[in-house]
Structure formats: structure tokens, C-alpha cells
Amino acid sequence: MQPQDSAGATELEEPGLPLTDDASQGVSEEPAAAEAAGAPDRGRCWLCRSSPCCSRAEPEAKKKAPCPGLGLFYTLLSAFLFSVSSLFVKKVQDVHAVEISAFRCVFQMLVVIPCLIYRKTGFIGPKGQRIFLILRGVLGSTSMILIYYAFQTMSLADGTVITFSSPVFTSIFAWIFLKEKYSPWDALFTVFTIIGVILIVRPPFLFGSDTSGIEETYSVHLKGTFAAIGNAVFAALTLVILRKMGKSVDYFLSIWYYVVLGLVESIIVLFILGEWSLPYCGLDRLYLILIGLFGLGGQVFLTKALQIEKAGPVAIMRTMDVVFAFIFQIIFFNNLPTWWTVGGALCVVASNAGAAIRKWYQSSK
Asked: Has residue 77 been placed in a domain?
């Protein structure tokens, strides 16, 4: 349930993990590097001088073929880890959402620095891409803060469903900034998503004063709704920027800008709000550590899934976030979702699944 990075990859929850083939960049680099270094070609046959030898090409191909369904399993595991991370955000009681973001940035920074040193990519990035890296960092970290605030002020299921409206905004922004085609199908999926969000928000001028299923007062619920929609918008903008940069920027460098600028942004906001305080409860401290661990684990498995599976099936499987959110809300908070929430979730999930299936079909032609 994180935006893509995701922290990425937006951070879609986690801003920063685009459901494109960009994640497979690291897979294609190793053979190229080996060839450039003059590594011996173990597939060349001394008898027929072909590379690879026809007698050995088929077994090698079979050896490298991934296990069927492994990519989808990785995606399911990623969805579960992201959902557990969101559950811990909801369970934290005495820590502001911005402070949770700061702790997560620190944790991820400790992981990303060794990766950047090992890959020798530097910490600044290509000169022509730095402005996009800065925008990616600011927008991605803002998206993370907003979704954490949404989880703290509204139910887990409602917040998760609204964040899944991000693909709709991605299509619109890609049409505006990248001149990508915006078809009538995209417009239809947008309408479905808007209907789903309306069913969850339940504005009084349409639904009257019925507030059943809302955890806090309606005003607090509305603040959480705006935060979740803001997360979807900023996650979509982050994904458009990642598409713009393409494969010219290393993935870990993108995360580096995300965590550094996210930490700076969080400290500034906490200073303005005066909300900085170490958690008093030892359980809250444990939750903060687990938020970082499970969030990072979700990113790792999502990246692995995108390396061996097409983006369409991965995007469809990612909707399991919503299922896990409903299950966790019932089990851990004893809060049974209303039929309005279920209907809204079905609309948003159908919109996401439809868009993913359509793009998958187009790419397979």
C-alpha cells in the first residue's frame, strides 16, 4: 500500500517504483560489462565456431528461464509487505506522520549509501538530469508524507483504495507533459475511479449526514481524503518524471535523492509544526523500525518482480494491496468496511485492472 518508491518506485505507494521495464536495467548491464571486459565466451564451440554452440544454446536458455509465476509471487509478497508497513503506520500512536517519514528516510539512507558506493554511480547524477532528480525527490517525499497522514486520519481500507487512483492521474499528466496518447478508454477508467473515490468520501450534499464506518469526525475524514488524493497526484507526477529520465539515471541514485530531500523536507515541516519528539512508547519505536524494514522489503520484491515479469500482470497483482488492507482493518481494528467502501474499492480496482490489461494487450501485439 505504499506509493510508488513507492519510496518509491511512487513511491506508485512507494513513489519511485514505476511499473515499466526500467527496473530491468540492472539485468542487462552485467552481460554488457562482461563482454566489454573481454570475458571468455563460454558458449563458443571450438568445433563449429558458433556462439553459442547449437548443441548448448537450448540447455543454457532453459537454465536461465525463471520459474513460471515467480514474478507474480514476488508481486504478491511485495503487496503484503507494503500493506504490513501501512498497518504499522496506522498502529503508531504518538508520532506525527511527518516524523515517521523522517525516520524512514534515515533508515533507507543507511541502505542506499553502500549500494551507491558499490555501484560507483556517485551521489549527484548526470548534469542534465539533476533538476528531474530534485523534482523526483521533492514530489516523492511529499507523496510519502501525505499517505502516512491519510492512514493516521482515516481507515486503512479507505486510504489504500484512494491511493490506487494514481494511475488515472499518471495517464493525464503523461498526456499533458509527455504528449502520450489519452484514449477514450483512459477517460472511461478515469470516470470509474472518480465514482469509486466519491463512494468512499461520501460528500454530504450527495449522501446526507450518514457517517457510518468513518473512524473520526467527518472533517478529519475529509482531511485524510485530501491527503490520500494528494498522494495519488504527487505519485503520478513522480512516475512521469521517472519516465522522462528513463534509464539514464541509476535506480539507487533516484532513491538517494528521494531519501535526502525527504529528510530535509520532513525536518523543515517538523520545525514549523513543532511536532518533533522521540516516541515515548517502546512499541512505537519498534513500529518505526518495522515500517522501514517492510517498506524496503516491498520495494526489493517489487523490483525483482518487474525484472522477470511483464508490467501488466504486475500492475494487476498489485491491487492485492486493497485486499490486504480490508483484511487488516477487520482483524486488527475490528472495523468492518461499509458497502460504500466496498463499492468504491471495486470501482477503483476495476479501473486499475482494466488499464493494466489494456496496456498489456497493446504491448503484446
From this structure: yes
The values of phi and psi at residue 138, to 5°, are: -65, -50
Give me the tens of pLDDT residue by residue for the chain, a chain 365 residues long.
444 444 444 443 443 333 444 433 333 333 333 333 344 444 444 444 444 454 444 444 444 556 768 888 998 999 999 999 999 999 987 788 999 999 999 988 998 899 899 988 889 888 888 999 999 999 999 999 999 999 999 889 999 999 988 888 988 998 998 888 888 998 999 999 999 999 888 877 667 666 666 766 778 888 999 999 999 999 999 888 888 887 778 888 888 999 999 999 999 999 998 877 777 777 888 898 899 889 888 888 887 887 788 777 888 888 899 999 999 999 998 888 888 889 999 999 999 888 888 888 777 76
CA 134-137-138 angle, 5° bins: 90
The parent domain of residue 313 ranges over: 70-209+216-363
SS3 category, 167: helix
- C-alpha–C-alpha distance, residues 87 and 79, integer Å: 12
CA distance 10 to 13: 5
C-alpha cell at 165: 487512483
Q: Please state the domain count of the chain.
A: 1
Rounded to the nearest angstrom, the gap between the alpha carbon of residue 267 and the centroid of all alpha carbons in its chain is: 23
Q: What is the pTM of this model?
A: 0.77
- First vs last Cα of the chain: how many Å apart? 31
Beta strands in 31-97 (DSSP E): none
CB 28 within 8 A of CB 251: no
| Structural domain includes residue 293 | yes
* Cell numbers found for residue 13: 505507494
In this structure, is residue 168 part of a structural domain? yes
Answer yes or no: is 294 within a domain: yes
